[in-house]
Specification:
The chain has 184 residues and is an alpha/beta fold. Helix content is 43%, strand content 11%. Strands 1-3-2-4-5 form a five-stranded parallel β-sheet, covered by helices on one side. Strand 4, helix 4 and strand 5 form a beta-alpha-beta unit. Helix 2 crosses helix 6 and helix 3 runs parallel beside helix 4. The two termini are 13 Å apart.
Length: 184
């Protein structure tokens, strides 16, 4: 199997990949200050790096995996002390995720993983809520995972690659725990 970044795929590759046995990873970040040494878009960049690494690891294990483009915006209320943050309203984030989920489910995708590097509580509440509340994402139709990643570790620029690898391992473990049948 190979890992695919969906945005770089041609339509025939997307047709072959998206289906009930594919694992689709949706990186989520936030445009906000993350200390003085990381760019504002670091959250989305890190989430994408974790998703790409996890998808490659899944593909190496024989699991079809696709990475969606990173969603660069989230709820960023805590960052209001510094300039440069852009925040979505909770309802906007909720609607955006519902639309992404519905689009994937309509194409036969049944396994969606949110790779989230933004640890703001209100942001996490929306992610949890849309997963629990969305009727089309019931376990019998599709399943959405939100693996726990350590944002403190992800914020360390000095140890970036090791932290991406550790976070990708957490994603792969969550996928293996949720869908062990994919690894046989």
């Amino acid at each position: 199997m190979r890992m695919t970044e969906l945005a770089d795929s041609l339509p025939p590759a997307a047709d072959a990949l998206l289906g009930p046995f594919a694992v689709v990873l949706q990186p989520l970040g936030a445009l906000e200050p993350r200390g003085l040494r990381l760019p504002l878009a670091a959250g989305g960049t890190i989430a994408r790096a974790v998703a790409v690494r996890a998808a490659a690891d899944l593909a190496a294990a024989g699991v079809a995996a696709a990475v969606l483009p990173a969603l660069p915006y989230g709820l960023s209320r805590r960052a209001e002390r510094r300039r440069g943050w852009i925040s979505l309203r909770p309802g906007t984030l909720w609607a955006l995720l519902e639309d992404v989920f519905e689009s994937l489910v309509e194409q036969g995708v049944r396994r969606i993983v949110l790779v989230n590097t933004h640890d703001e509580p209100e942001h996490a509440e929306v992610l949890d809520g849309v997963i629990l509340d969305h009727p089309e994402i019931a376990p019998e139709q599709a399943h959405v995972l939100l693996p726990s990643l350590s944002s403190a570790a992800l914020d360390s620029a000095e140890e970036g690659e090791a932290n991406v690898a550790a976070s990708a391992e957490a994603v792969v473990r969550a996928v293996r725990d949720a869908w062990p049948e994919l690894f046989r």
